[in-house]
Write a structure and sequence with these properties.
The chain is an alpha+beta fold and about 325 residues long. The chain has three domains: about 60 residues, Structural Genomics Hypothetical 15.5 Kd Protein In mrcA-pckA Intergenic Region, Chain A, CATH 3.10.290; about 90 residues, Pseudouridine synthase, CATH 3.30.2350.10; about 140 residues, Pseudouridine synthase (2-Layer Sandwich). The protein contains seven helices and 15 strands. Strands 5, 6, 7, 8, 9, 10, 11, 12, 13, 14 and 15 form an eleven-stranded mixed beta sheet that branches. A four-stranded antiparallel beta sheet has the order 1-4-2-3, with no helix packed on it. α1 packs across α2 and α1 runs antiparallel to α5. The protein is globular. The protein starts with 5 loop residues before the first strand and ends in a 16-residue tail after the last helix.
Length: about 325
């Protein structure tokens, strides 16, 4: 950790990274909340100017980094009952674990990180998994609160730095499953748009933006129809090439086939949810495959969450069916 102010250049490999992710990759021991705090306070500067956590860096820019501190783990009472329950819960949703990484099957409705009014979240739960050296597991990517499925977590600083680079280089392969309204005419396709955040009265959404528009980021998604349930519903497999906020949800709505149960992007008039189905987001991070930091591959698959399994049963869809998106191009 730097104990004095330092200025570091942004390399070509780091171009396009968000400011907060840049610091997270440089200093894996820092808590994400501390990173957000020093940026918001203006202690982090890019080319001498204040910046925002979400701003993206360009090669050649200089980043002023203030003195940083590792968040000291709070002393926890041994045998704490609440901690034991949290450990048991995390173990119950673990899909894969070794000395460096953990893949969690995140339940729908559980936030990955804290925010305004959010006190129960996975990032906070990871505190109970600190090792003997005080290292705590760290998130290397995120899922929306209402998206279920595979979430990769680094257990060591070494793994955190290696996996951050993997995600930056788009070497991570992610496959999502969704149930959408209607059936796309093209059974397989590529969706390429620019997305920008739009603040509304009580929420923020990602809208389709023009190339060159301030704050707009390029987003690319491949999709394939796995199976249909008449003309009303389709089981879609999705492969995001980029990792923008709400990308899959905004993209499916953009092509006229919003994801069932999506409270932000479902925009079909006079559409009725079939009887017996729950009005919850039908989006699953089905599979993640990434190079392991020490060699080999991490490859984990999440089962359908209960509300989606209920819909699959109702519609007669077979989750064991071949997934046509798995060999889609990477860019």
């Amino acid at each position: 950790m730097p104990t004095a102010v330092q200025t570091v250049p942004v390399t070509a490999d780091e171009a396009g990274m968000r400011v907060d992710r840049f610091l997270e990759a440089k200093f894996p021991g820092l808590s994400f909340s501390h990173i957000q705090r020093v940026i918001r306070k203006g202690e982090v500067r890019v080319n001498g100017k204040r910046t925002q956590p979400k701003n993206r860096l360009e090669a050649g820019q200089s980043v002023r980094i203030p003195p940083l501190r590792l968040d000291q783990p709070k002393p926890r009472a041994p045998g704490n009952e609440a901690d034991e329950k949290t450990r048991a819960f995390l173990k119950s949703i673990t899909l894969y674990e070794d000395a460096d990484v953990l893949v969690i099957n995140k339940p729908m409705g559980l936030a990955v990180q804290g925010g305004s009014g959010t006190t129960r979240h996975l990032d906070g739960m990871l505190e109970v998994l600190r090792d003997a050296h005080g290292q705590r597991p760290r998130l290397v990517h995120r899922l929306d609160k209402d998206t279920a499925g595979c979430l990769l977590v680094a257990k060591t600083r070494f793994a955190a730095a290696a996996l951050a680079k993997t995600f930056r280089s788009r070497a991570a392969r992610k496959v999502y499953w969704a149930l959408v309204a209607g059936v796309p005419k093209l059974r397989q396709g590529r969706i390429s748009t620019f997305l920008a955040k739009e603040e509304r009265e009580d929420e923020s959404i990602m809208r389709i933006a023009r190339h060159g528009e301030e704050g707009a980021s390029h987003a690319v998604t491949y999709y394939a129809v796995v199976e249909t349930a008449g003309p009303a519903l389709a089981w879609i497999s999705l492969k995001p090439v980029t990792g923008r906020t709400h990308q899959l949800r905004a993209h499916m709505n953009h092509i006229g086939h919003p994801i069932v149960g999506d409270p932000k992007y479902f925009a079909r008039e006079n559409w009725e949810l079939p009887g017996g189905m729950q009005n919850r987001l039908h989006l699953l991070a089905r599979r993640i495959a990434v190079p392991h930091p020490r060699g080999g591959t991490i490859d984990a698959t999440a089962p359908l969450p209960p509300h989606m399994q209920q819909s699959w049963n109702l519609l007669g869809l077979d989750a064991a069916r071949y997934d046509p998106i798995e060999e889609a191009p990477e860019d």
